[in-house]
Write a structure and sequence with these properties.
Elements: H1 3-12, E1 26-28, H2 30-36, E2 40-44, H3 56-69, E3 74-79, H4 84-95, E4 99-104, H5 113-121, E5 124-127, H6 135-149, E6 154-156, H7 164-182, E7 190-195, H8 199-210, E8 216-221, H9 226-255, E9 274-276, H10 289-302, H11 311-324, E10 331-335
Parallel strand pairs: 2-10, 3-4, 3-6, 4-5, 7-8, 7-10, 8-9
Antiparallel strand pairs: 1-2
Helix pairs in contact: 1-7, 3-4, 3-7, 4-5, 7-8, 7-9, 8-9, 10-11
């Protein structure tokens, strides 16, 4: 049994709610490749199927399963008013019969983009009146306490779904990508992606650690200092691997299958975290000139739209690396979704 197969065997025993249409396509972007002089492949996680799609659906499959296993009847999470994460979390909760509650930092703003979609599905939304993103964290705990006092059973998820349970979604995706790449004659040797809260990158890093030589994972930070997001990715990746070790033990004990993915087989040095900086632009949640140019090139060459907060900035970094010669071999890019923010009227400089 291959290592990829081993991980798949263990994950097959981990309950998840099937929300995504998987596998998502991995396809060559020929005109963009010609423009950059490097073969570029798109991993199309904008096509996961829930709502308008996006990468967070993979994490939500495990998070909602965990919530249901714990007997929770409502979900509490938070971020900014244009968060793709909270929008998809609310949709996933509704699909599972769980009531969503969302906390947004700052003051109430006009109903556009994701906020408009929240209003359409009836999400309960609370604003913190504090522009700091971290204000959401304490406000979620307060809201969860109020719900418990009313006899509810809330499942609280941090911004971006960044937990070891959520990271299992992209650990599983790493197996999917490995299978798809094995079918190619000249597969990508690296996967580039935007990195915000770190859960997506962490799952991929954990998957790569279990498959030495499987390719480099390159995250482009769109919100946090490199040191902060690197520590976050390492923490979440290690946590996901701890879960996998526990599930592997369960598989061996009950099914007599040696899955070969116990946590002790992966050391800290195996968690290779490569985070690139310099592409945040004016700030998180604000479009950048470089990102706008990258998104326009991607749309004109491949007919694929990138959101201005995540995808456009990561693509700007990849384009720069290709044109400078820093990336010479085949490379994959995670198209992570975020379509509603295209219609949110975000500030531009």
């Amino acid at each position: 049994m291959t290592i990829a197969g081993d991980v798949g065997t263990v994950l097959a025993g981990v309950r998840r709610v099937e929300l995504a249409q998987l596998p998502t396509p991995l396809h060559l972007a020929p005109r963009l490749s010609a423009e950059l002089g490097v073969p570029v492949w798109f991993k199309r996680d904008d096509l996961t199927g829930l709502g308008l799609g996006g990468n967070k659906v993979r994490a939500l499959e495990y998070l909602l399963a965990d919530a249901l296993d714990r007997g929770c009847d409502c979900l509490v999470t938070g971020a900014g008013p244009q968060s793709n994460w909270t929008m998809l979390a609310a949709l996933a909760a509704i699909r599972c019969g769980v009531e969503p509650f969302v906390v947004c930092y700052g003051d109430a703003v006009p109903d556009r983009g994701n906020l408009l979609l929240h209003r359409q599905i009836g999400t309960r939304i609370r604003f913190t009146s504090d522009p700091e993103r971290s204000s959401v964290d304490d406000a979620m705990d307060v809201l969860a306490g109020e719900l418990r006092n009313r006899g509810r059973r809330p499942y609280v998820v941090p911004r971006g779904g960044a937990t070891p349970v959520g990271a299992l979604g992209y650990l599983r995706a790493s197996v999917e990508l490995s299978v798809q790449s094995a079918e190619l004659t000249d597969p990508p040797t690296a996967l580039w992606l935007p990195t915000g809260s770190g859960g997506t990158c962490a799952g991929l890093v954990a998957g790569a650690a279990l498959r030495p030589g499987s390719g480099e994972i390159v995250g482009v930070t769109v919100s946090r200092p490199v040191a902060d997001i690197t520590a976050q990715v390492r923490r979440l990746a290690a946590g996901a691997l701890d879960l996998i070790g526990a599930f592997a033990y369960r598989v061996r004990r009950h099914a007599e299958v040696d899955a070969g993915v116990s946590r002790h087989q992966v050391g800290k040095d195996d968690l290779r975290v490569d985070i690139r900086d310099g592409w945040i632009g004016p700030g998180y949640g604000v479009a950048s000139a470089e990102g706008d140019r990258a998104a326009a090139l991607t749309a004109r060459t491949e007919g694929v739209f990138l959101d201005p907060v995540f995808g456009a900035k990561a693509m700007a970094a990849l384009i720069d690396a290709c044109r400078s010669g820093a990336v010479a071999g085949p490379v994959a890019f995670l198209v992570s979704g975020g379509a509603p923010t295209l219609f949110a009227g975000l500030a531009r400089t």
